[in-house]
## 1
Amino acid sequence: MSTPSAPPAPRRWTALVLIALAQFTVIMDTSIIGVALPKMQVDLGFSPEGLSWVFNAYVVAFGGLLLLGGRLSDLFGAKRIFVAGWTVMAGGSLVAGLASEVWVELTGRALQGVGAALIAPSALTLLMMLFGARPKELTKALALYGAAAPAGGTAGVFLGGVITEYASWPWVFYINIPIALVVLAFTPGVMPSSPVRRGSVDFGGAATVTVGLATAVYAIVRAPETGWGSAETWLVLLAGLALIGAFVAIQSKRREPLMRLGIWKSPNLAGANIAQLLMAAAWIPMWFFLNLYLQQVLGLGAFASGAALLPMTVAIMIMMIVLAPRLMARFGSKPLIVTGLLALAAGMLWLSFARADGTFWVDVLPASLLAAAGMSLAFIPSLGTALSSARPEEGGLASGIVNTSYQVGSALGLAAMTAVSAAYGARELGDPEALTNGFSAAFIGAAALAAVGAVASLLTLRGAPSQDSAPGEKQGPARPGRPPRGGRLRRAGTSRRRPPGPAEPRTWGSGRCWGSPPVRRSDSG
């Protein structure tokens, strides 16, 4: 017998706006600094190699501390951690904007990443608290949440160009402060509260995985200068991997780990996170190098380059909000994840044919729209499947894991494709032919990552079992005079069949493939 669900929160849609704004902002902060980097280099004295750490300091702190943010959300309540995250984000933005030296700038960016690591998992946990018991509303909520990510990425490029051109680069950081104040003002009245739970926090594990990730990214970023075959590259890379391995060993021995390793036994959790990791490893390099192609090869200015990415963003938002939920209800999540990743790979392979004397309408627009369609199809189903694979009390952990997968994929994918593009000519600034060759190589590499993600999803994700059976219950044809296997004789006049209706996402924590359509068996013997 089902338990009646709690009454809906009266201001849950207002809360969803704040949650989507959180996703928009943390993704915007990965891209808004791109156009401002040359002026920051001149004003602060960054070296060419050190300049990349304006991006990496944020992403590494963000990705490395997401599990800690998820654990803190589970222990102290998602609402409290959400507020703390915005406070840290505002403080880090102020430090980054006021910086007059390299180390101060990197400190501010790292603080922004810490704030994002608290905001992202707590925001997803709050979303599941508000909508998890109402599958139809959850589909809409996740679609709006998912659409906020590409909107934030493109808005970052566009706003970064406008701010850098018409104001000054510190304002790419100051823009976060009024957003944070608005969110902090509305959060107490619209977000649900949760009780504080007893437990310890594994700060040592959080530090180990963060340093390990930073070390691995550093090795990959430095590889073009030191050489992929050099002892320095491999020693640093192995040190990073050893620290990540030490983190796993620590988690296996702790009584209250930062990441309970048993959570990976949940069906589909690993497959959905692999899809998110490889999707990000492909998507972020595509966006990064497409922006460089528009500016350095086609000669578009900062403002025009940002505007050129708007069709892709609009397409993603429309498809995520309108098309993806309907297709999920019809076909389920696994087919959409696989198809979406294949479409993403095809779009990037198409972009690899871009010409040095190309045009936006021929070389960029159609291929970018195909890639956007793939991202739209794969993102929401893989995100929903990853979240639904955890128990409700581990919602923060599941949110932290899936956000970590996406951010780690972003950092490692961009670092690897940057090395690939540099090896094939992207260092030759001012030479459109060489730059195009380098960018094309990066697009091909990113397409390969998306294709691997599609194959991995096909092999690892499972569809949902019949709605008429409990998880793990075997089904077979009914025999005359006997009840169906695993079941009992029904009372006269009753039926176990549900009335027909639209497919619904599985209950949070069911461990099933989220969004899969119901499979009903016939009652005929």
## 2
Amino acid sequence: MKRIFEIDPWTITSHELNAEDKRLQELITSLGNEHMGMRGMFEETYAGDTHLGVYIGGVWFPDKTRVGWWKNGYPLYFGKAINAVNFTKAKFTIDGQEVDLAKHAYQDFVVTLDMHDGVLYREFTVFGVHVTITRLISAATKELAAWRFAFEAVDGATHQVVVDASIDADVVNEDANYDEKFWQVLDKNADQSASWMSTQTVPNDFGVPQFTVVAEQTFAGDFTQTANTSTAFAVTNSFTATVSATPVVLEKRVIVTTSRDYADNVAVVAGAHTLSQQVTARSFADIFTAHAAEWHARWEKADVQIEGDVPAQQGIRFNLFHLFATYYGNDSRLNIGPKGFTGEKYGGATYWDTEAFAIPVYLGVTKPEVVKALLKYRYDQLTGAYHNAQQQDLAGALYPMVTFDGIESHNEWEITFEEIHRNATIAYAIYNYTNLTGDHTWERGEGAEVLIGIARFWADRVHYSKHQAAYMIHGVTGPNEYENNVNNNFYTNWMAKWVLSYATDVLPKIDDQIADKLAVTDEEVAHWQDIVAKMWLPEVDTTDVDGNPRHIFLAQDGWLDKDLVPVRDLPADELPINQHWSWDRVLRSPYIKQSDTLHAMYYFPDAFTEEQKRDNYLFYEPFTVHESSLSPSVHSIIAADLKMEDKAVEFYERTARLDLDNYNNDTNDGLHITSMTGAWLSIVQGFAGMRVRDEQLVLNPFLPKNWTSYQFRLIYRGRILEIKVTGAGSTVKLIDGEPLTILLNGTETEVE
């Protein structure tokens, strides 16, 4: 497997600039701070293949759905995060020659993402001048991005260097229909001290607000400003300096404000001016220190330290870095896009990934308020969930597959309208938060409104089969998206049954005011209980790929009728199948994109016997191609639960380095942000066996064979615990909070 970055515990570094790897390099070295983010593209001109991507959290556009086979219930638009004004742009000219590493000979190239400080560095030598660029997006001031450009002559000569720093609104999305543009310029100005531009999304026909984004750049350092220019879509400040053996520095600060935080467009511009004046008075060193301190505080809570396996160490830190760069709970209006600020695939919207994979991580490494913000995000969109269900002629609340505002904005029928299992995961998030924190206030309050709305949806979506005397759910897509429009997907049916059971249990505990608002009748509850008792969940006896008898849950009604050829018998040059086979062939195959039947066992490991988990794992995993980035971590956790330690480690390595090593040959579309949770989950829930059982924290750790030790901190019910696993055993230390009793390797242990 080709690696373009060097192995190091805290940095992502490359000393090579290969044109074919340029986009991958940009993705891996992306930066963000939840409010905004950008790919690691070059500031200066680069004539080769590149993707200039700057994205603003919560800023999006409703792109009209264009299909020739319209069906009732289709969303009117596809929501997408749009490439925002490019405030990174800087043209370098040395002795009259424009710097372009795609055209000119260069030496000493190095790019480094320092994950500990959250800073991107780049260096190269061209035309006798060594250039060093430092870039950060402040974790301390959300509107601030900052650069430091240093130029030093290394050939003994003196050079004239010109820097043209621009804010450019002439941008497009790579996935735009017919190269349409989404931005219009409202106002702009360039003068001797700064330049700024106010842009707004173009009007739309769907009632989605137009967003205004203002970017303002200011400067400091050794250069002399020589010009300022303004064109229809850009403002530019030009600087010049004479460069010799003593480094000459230009600092650039950019403030980005949006209409999400201000009452009107005038206020957005005024806000940018005010913040720019504040940061102009601060040195780059002060900006750097405040930013790095915030990252250090995050690592203090969340770092996982691995001894004996540097690639594994680098992998988990890389994943946590990009996860926190995308979301850290500072704005309850935001959520976690599957590609974060690194690419345009999936439109930058919210998927079920957040509740399934991200919330468990944030519960363990951040204060509970961060997860409360994610729960509130869904509560605030409950009206939209009711609308989505009504569009399908169904009762209750149907949370969207893809959304920015609660309204479904994805137009692929077999995913959007059949992959309804995501609705159960929204309810699971409420349960998961309550179970891990011990805090029932959300479950009994606003969360109950969400839970009952989802329960009412499932009660209407099932139908009763007189032939089988059972409730069924037809026409769905389970988590395995390589099967569409199937009947009785086990995971979907099991989770629908669980939601109705959970809602029934919670109902008597709901706050009186909310209970009156919901007005759940005895007849409703009786119907829910009948569905729970009679849900269609067939079990069958069969054999696995090696001929061993297995008692399994049937993935869907027709699954055993497929041509059951295991993945190991497929030609290597046909993998991944989604890049080599027709969609028709994929859908008829037995191949599983990600955990499906097994996903229920990931959510609720104590609801299944060890024999059930083992039989289903050994039967279904040989047919799983893991072509979803969400797949390896679930299989790692279940394998660890079954004491299949080698398998658990194998899948950990895959999830931890999925993007760094481009396992599925699809990282160029953008980093897999939500699946970056998988490395932490594999270690904490998998290797360490963390569970909450009967209100007690349970840990059953094992140490991977190639590791010397690992340790992590865990926030649990007001405590901060430090767990360390070595060859000699496991220790748990209380860093902060009240003493508690845990179950460690089956033994009651006091942690003080």
## 3
Amino acid sequence: MTPAAVSYAQTSTDAAPVQGQESSLMVIKQRTGLSELDTPAAVSVVDGDELRRASAQVNLSENLGGVPGLQIQNRQNYAQDLQLSVRGFGSRSMYGVRGVRLYVDGIPATMPDGQGQTSNIDINSVGKVEVLRGPYSALYGNASGGVVNIDSETGSQPTTLEAGTYFGSYGSWRNSVKASGATGDGTQAGDVNYTISGSRFTTHGFRDHSGTQKSLGNGKLGVRLDDVSTLTLMFNSVSVDANDPGGLTEEEYKANPRQSPRGDNFNTRKSLDQTQVGLRYQREMSENDQLTLTTWHGERHTTQYQSIPYGTQQLATYPGGVIVLERKYQGVDTRWKHDGQLGSVPVTLIGGLDYETMTERRQGFQNYNTVNGVNQFGEKGEQRRNEKNTMWNLDPYLQTSWQLTPKWTLDAGLRYSTVNFDSTDYYITSVNGDDSGSARYHKLLPMGSVNYAVTDAWNLYASAGRGFETPTINELSYRSTSGTQTGLNLGLKPATSDTFELGSKTRIGYGLLTAAVFQTNTDNELVVDSSSGGRAVYKNAGETRRRGLELGFDQQFAMDWHLKLAWTLLDATYRNETCNAKNVCTPAGNRLPGIARNMGYASLAYAPESGWHAGADIRYMSDIQANDANDAQAPSYAVTSLNSGYRFNWSQWSLDLFGRVDNLFDREYVGSVIVNEGNNRYYEPAPGRNWGGGATVTYQF
């Protein structure tokens, strides 16, 4: 696999596989996708139909629990996005996704600084989700934990129209439409394929002050230009207006897990509007050479109101309680692939250059206006911050795959990552100095793996690689939560991770049994130093270690039955004593907060093409430490879900009706934690027993 694999595997319409054993480089036909069996890495592929089956189709967390090593939790807070981590990387994120590289149709949903978000993912049109864990993820640049690639459906004949609806607890509604189709089979000049989808979601929310409205559109249009080239246009737009209920202390959680005391007082909320467009050109330059050029541009506007106390906002150096961000981002990824031979050994060589930029205008305002001597919170007041931040990365990469013998394959790759950050401060007063600054980071990221095919259905592999994770713009922004220390936190260093992994993959009938053991040693781990008053300050924690075991079993049997099992054991600890600015020290051996030591998942589904269908699943999560001191934690829990429905098929029409119950036994538990929250407001409660139902009607011309 190459650094660009995520962005081109799903679009390689006519590329032939490497001769001999199926290539781990994924240079394969579009409908084949990434091979779970033959890729020498920990890989899971989830089909889009599986994501949508009897679900609300709002969050990725609904049906991705069966991926080993992936901890994905719904915060019940659409102002902060999902909490997603891979092998423990990303668990510290206050909002959005950190430490994991995200792609949607080959376009990064992760900015050059490493901060990503899932709000623009349209589950209604997902073709598949690929989750890559371990050393291979180093070849994608600024991420240490892994890669999540979302590939939209590619339209095909016949033309299909679809409309769906979902309704559930807490006033939740989702309505969606989708159209897909194609002219021709994609092999002739002028052939076109398309998929266009749109949805609208509203909810009052499980917690007080957590209502949300979300509109989402996604489209993909492909054109066969001639016998050797294709052009694909991708479009995506999302708009979110969400209240922010915030975290709770242990006492508040036990008294009333649905309350939002600060959300009501400060009218905390977030609005987001993002639109992006991408274009991919692919050309077969010769029988053995292929060129792929991908480019994209997007704009994102965010306004967020935070629960900052009045007294704190009065500090001369404090940036206020309202954040206004305007971001423009773009990039281009150019890749060349060559298939050849060195003597009698088939060799694939892939090289490319990835360039991404982001320009951000960040402003801060007071979260109140004073009218007749009374402070009215929840209204934008005087400006307290004004800066322009720019970030870019330039990453050349190279990878080879050698088919040494019919059973042995060697892969090796390099990526040289350069990340540059510049900030220009326009808010300068007599008591608030110039906080401008810049930083640049470089790292050579090597990776290698060897794969041995014991049989056609059983592969063993070993791999090693180095990961690289720079501070994000948000992590560089603050040096203290009180605002007494101004200027950027340019003392932060990037974290570097070395991962070693052994794995086994066995095809059993129509199923796959996978196992992986790994160890990741991280130097200069970026962790939350303190978090309060709406801001988080980060530090380098020295050395940490993650080691674990991932087991997965995915089996289809008796035609219409599907069994899925997954277990993850992850031991993530500090390897040296780490002290914060207040000289409070975390001893070596303490667990990294936000990470479950054990995760388990089991599901059984009966899913025929028509008639009754049903399913059940159970998810287990062990206790999660909420802070570095390990003296606050979210207890372990297990929750069960049931669903059932009926699918009618009449000629060109189909109607799928379903209902579901989540948290069947009405367990009270914490769904996610806010790591190292300075006011001990660590807990984000999950709902008790809740229900939902929906219908999807489809017509094929």
## 4
Amino acid sequence: MTPPPPRKRGTVRPGAPITPLRKLGEIRRAQAITTYGVGSMIAVDNESFVIAGLDTWDVSRTRTLWEPRLTRVTGAHEFKLPPAVDSEDARDGVRAARFPQLYSCPECRELQYYSKFNPPKDKAVCGACERDLVPSRFVMACVNGHLDDFPYWKWVHRSFSYGPGEAGSVGRCGGKLRLRAEGSTASLRGVVIGCTCGAKEVSMEGAFRSQALRDLGIRCTGRRPWLKDAPAQQCGEPPRTLQRGSSTVWYPVVHSALSIPPWSDGVLKALGPHWNNIQDEAEDEAEIRAYLKVAKFEKKNRGLTVDDAVAAVLRAREAEAEPPAEEHTTLSPRDLLYQEEYRTLQRERPEDGRDELQDFVCEPPSGDRTPDGIGQVMLVKRVREIRVLHSFTRVEEPAVGDTASSSRRAALALRKPDWLPAIEVSGEGVFVRLDPEWLAAWEQRPQPQERAARVRRNHEALLRERYANSDRPVPPSPISPRYLAVHTLAHLLINEWSLDGGYPAASLRERLYIGDDMAGFLIYTATSDSAGSLGGIVAQGEPERLTSSLESALLRASWCSNDPLCSEAAASGADSVNLAACHACVLLPETSCETNNAFLDRVALVGTPDGVVSGLF
């Protein structure tokens, strides 16, 4: 991770040494998608930076990932691994820009822009006191993704009498800001801002109120510091005060897809770099053969022949040309993607010994017996997932059910790129489909419907609030008794299998398939290397182990250490979209859950102790 080069560029004489870019630190490639993606902030020692936009990334040497099904969802033509500095002489990686710009010195207590401290090169040190500088703890952001330094001057001079055209002009008083942190308290009241002009000192207490900045006449500046030379945008949203290290500063919008047949075949994987050219230039079988011979396909991919490649291309084109079923024509690209995976996971796909590059292997367990309430179990012995960073939001987390593009999702680049950053993860998993007749009989009962309606009302209120200033219709809430039961069961089995399968819960993920004609989930490993295929999870899908783990999971769910408060809760969790679910019984690490631990209710599975509400099992 390196900072962007200075804007002023001089000429370099032939033979003159090239000044290497400063290396700030290291992050894993997966973190460039999920944790430290474009627009997020990262702390490095006593400095703070924002990850720069895709315009500054050099991906000319990174591998291209190929997944046509994700192209339909994201609109991107290619997916690239984030750049990595693989050797000491490599000069580039993921770029970063200094943010926030405001720093303070713990010795002289001055609060000003970083450059005004006259720090030594590549060191965040006060030039006068020789003490390490401290980046501002607070920033200002809005729901449209804009980000700026906290307006300390306006916060202190709230009673300043502005002249014509001077409203909010920083430094008009001629004084210098001072920051004092009182050690007697850890609250915001202990962070005091003053000015040498004589203005009354003001603490940061109350700065986090939703209307605090708006009440002082402070408006969103429309800044996008992660995009180089980006002009400020007009924005009417009220700005909010946020902690620099808060999770609310950056919420990634990530799309993912499993590699399923025919796209999981090893031949098509080898054809990935040539696919766009084949689609554009080769219409029939003869032209495909001619292109592959010119591209020296057999020489570059030993063990694969042109005949294999041509047959794979024709199969893929046939699959693309197949019209979707009539009931699926109104589905969004993301919903259609999940429908395709759900149908594929129910079909056997044994390992082909001839195809060493096969990315999808799905087989039934050795026995036919399944526990009551479970309709089908499939052992996914090999699976590959592509995860793509599409955009991000600030202040408000993207609402579940909002699959349409939103104006509140910030851009990753100043100009829309034809590629997006992505990673691939390989591993194993178990697919579980609930018995449709068992499920239908339970979800028609009034008690499950009443509990699901309670969660749905809270979710719909949240969606209406998010779309209050939007011209788009509010999407419907997907919450139903089926949703609560399937989702909660996936959580219970992840917790159970983390004890028996050799993986911690944070290394497992769920993939939910819930709809009018879907009721299942895939639990799979989420590691980005070969350690994701140890066989421990696949073994949990065998009939005897599944029966044992399901009984144990339901027994644990029947009582929580927080009962009766947990089981009798009318609403719980963020935004009140959970019922009987807490960290002692159902919740998982957020990386393991598709919905960040929302829409859960263990009573939907085990009922209440008094039997008034019946559970699915």
